[in-house]
Amino acid sequence: MAYFVLLLGVGFVLGGLAVASNPSPYYGVVGLVLGSVVGCGLLVSLGVPFVALVLFMVYLGGMLVVFVYSVCMAADPFPETWGDWRVLGYGVVMVLMLIVGVVFVGVECWKTWVVTVDSGSIFVGRLDFSGVAMFYSLGAGMFLAAGWGLLLTLFVVLELVRGLSCGAIRAV
Amino acid sequence: MSPHTKLLTSLSLTLGTTITISSTHWLMAWAGPELNTLAIIPYTSKSHHPRSIEAAIKYFLVQATASTLLLFSSMTNAWATGQWDITQLTHPTSSLLLTVAIAMKLGLVPFHFWFPEVMQGSPLITAMLLSTMMKFPPTILLLMTSHSLNPTLLTILAVASVTIGGWMGLNQTQLRKILAFSSIAHLGWLAAVIIYSPKLALLIFYLYTLMTITVFLTLNSTKALKLPTLMTSWTKNLSLNAILMLTLLSLAGLPPLTGFLPKWLTIQELTKQEMAATATALAILSLLGLFFYLRLAYYSTITLPPNSTNHMKHWHFTKPTNTTTAILATLSMLTLPLSPLILAIT
């Protein structure tokens, strides 16, 4: 089980690598999807499956979909691919940097331990569900602040893309 | 910009600042700057010019990265110590990461490269907000964690900021970029003394804000954006032009104007902490800034431009005096004699 968690961790790093070395946003989202899927697996291994499901729903099902729509409007029509030599070289250099980092930090970090974020033996409820319940009871102020932030984001985005040619960058 | 957007964004600016300065949990201290960043983006890109949009994008990317680093440092601290209190940032990695994150938000060297370009791409009043109000929450976060920060890192950031702020401002003719570099230099002075005397750092910030707002409001009344425009501003508002000269010299830190007070008290505090070499270095490197402030003051008041107007008065009628500018200008020039009172209050 610990090795599976290690595999998920490696997948996370590879997903981040894919996003960082992407030649075009179309290929970058592949890395994002990989990273978020294995990230959800890591959250399950930590003991908070509800948060993982929420991440799936909101990140992959909401934000990524909107991102793909906006990328369709603005990205270049003939992008470079993974197979181009410059992109491949870029990715190889990043893997080399990762290896150098591991060598510097020491191989200790590859020894895995499985940690769970439980509520210990004091609480009865699970941490993730009771956290959401807290949102509606003690944490109502934070809930309002989060809702205000979302409303603000909506208005800011609408203001930024208002107008066909005098808005932000558009290919269409 | 639609009135609804204006209302929402201006309310969010105040809400974000208030949330940050009144927070005890790191999550709210992260949410506040995020609200601020989002709210000021439409103001930065208001004119929809490519330069403004690029400035908005740069601002958003840099501030989002800094907020991520902030969250990462708080989470590392929570993992190591089990609590999210802002004043209990005991894990050393967390405090280093936090210093870097706040330096990115404030525009301290070596994370300053975004600041002049973002200021240049924004309208004058937005540039004023960017350099005063948007610096307030990160300064307060530094203040709240000042007892757990690394002194060496902060001193390096401070001396480098004063150097780069003075040096890079020398070759500029655009006023917003000059004021950006002035901001970097002043925040360097703030970072030098924040560990030893957080109240003095707050005083530095307040006086810097006062003087900067005065300069921006003065420039806004004549819509002067670059040095050649400043040279003919004496025809538009003669007394305000003279006051601009004195306010610029106050920003430079010349006695007997107000801007001398923060520098004086900082040098005193650093000397008390056995850091006389740092104090001397900061004082000498501020001379670089003095040169471009002097150049601005000289070109706006003492020189007649080669394309001078034939008539002493401009073609439009004299604008009525703006009360706010007058009051702020008086405060930013003449409050040095009140320094015992200021020291007693802060």
From TrEMBL, chain A:
What does the organism's lineage look like at the top?
Answer: Eukaryota, Metazoa, Chordata, Craniata, Vertebrata
Q: What class of enzyme is it?
A: translocase
> Where are the membrane-spanning stretches?
44-75, 87-113, 133-161
Where in the cell does this protein reside? Mitochondrion membrane
- A GO molecular function held by the record: NADH dehydrogenase (ubiquinone) activity
Please give, as recorded in its UniProt entry, the membrane topology of this protein: Multi-pass membrane protein
The EC code for this enzyme is 7.1.1.2
- Signal peptide positions on this chain: 1-15
What family is this? Belongs to the complex I subunit 6 family.
Catalytic activity line of the entry: a ubiquinone + NADH + 5 H(+)(in) = a ubiquinol + NAD(+) + 4 H(+)(out)
The gene designation is ND6
List the Pfam families hit by this protein, alphabetically: Oxidored_q3
State the UniProt keywords alphabetically.
Electron transport, Membrane, Mitochondrion, NAD, Respiratory chain, Signal, Translocase, Transmembrane, Transmembrane helix, Transport, Ubiquinone
Report what the protein is called: NADH-ubiquinone oxidoreductase chain 6
GO CC, alphabetical:
mitochondrial membrane
Query: Chief subcellular site?
Result: mitochondrion
Origin species: Accipiter nisus (Eurasian sparrowhawk)
State the function annotated in the UniProt record.
Core subunit of the mitochondrial membrane respiratory chain NADH dehydrogenase (Complex I) that is believed to belong to the minimal assembly required for catalysis. Complex I functions in the transfer of electrons from NADH to the respiratory chain. The immediate electron acceptor for the enzyme is believed to be ubiquinone. Core subunit of the mitochondrial membrane respiratory chain NADH dehydrogenase (Complex I) which catalyzes electron transfer from NADH through the respiratory chain, using ubiquinone as an electron acceptor. Essential for the catalytic activity and assembly of complex I.
Q: This protein's superkingdom?
A: Eukaryota
TrEMBL record, chain B:
Task: Mention one GO molecular function.
Answer: NADH dehydrogenase (ubiquinone) activity
Q: Which GO terms describe its biological process?
A: mitochondrial electron transport, NADH to ubiquinone
What are the residue boundaries of the NADH:quinone oxidoreductase/Mrp antiporter transmembrane domain, all occurrences included?
A: 23-288
Which GO terms of the cellular component aspect does the record hold?
mitochondrial inner membrane
Give TM regions. 56-75, 95-115, 152-171, 178-196, 202-219, 240-261, 281-304, 325-345
Where's the NADH dehydrogenase subunit 2 C-terminal domain? 290-343
User: Record's InterPro entries?
Assistant: Complex_I_Subunit_2, NADH_DH_su2_C, NADH_UbQ_OxRdtase_chain2, ND/Mrp_TM
Q: What EC number(s) are associated with this protein in UniProt? A: 7.1.1.2
Assigned protein family: Belongs to the complex I subunit 2 family.
Which protein is depicted?
NADH-ubiquinone oxidoreductase chain 2
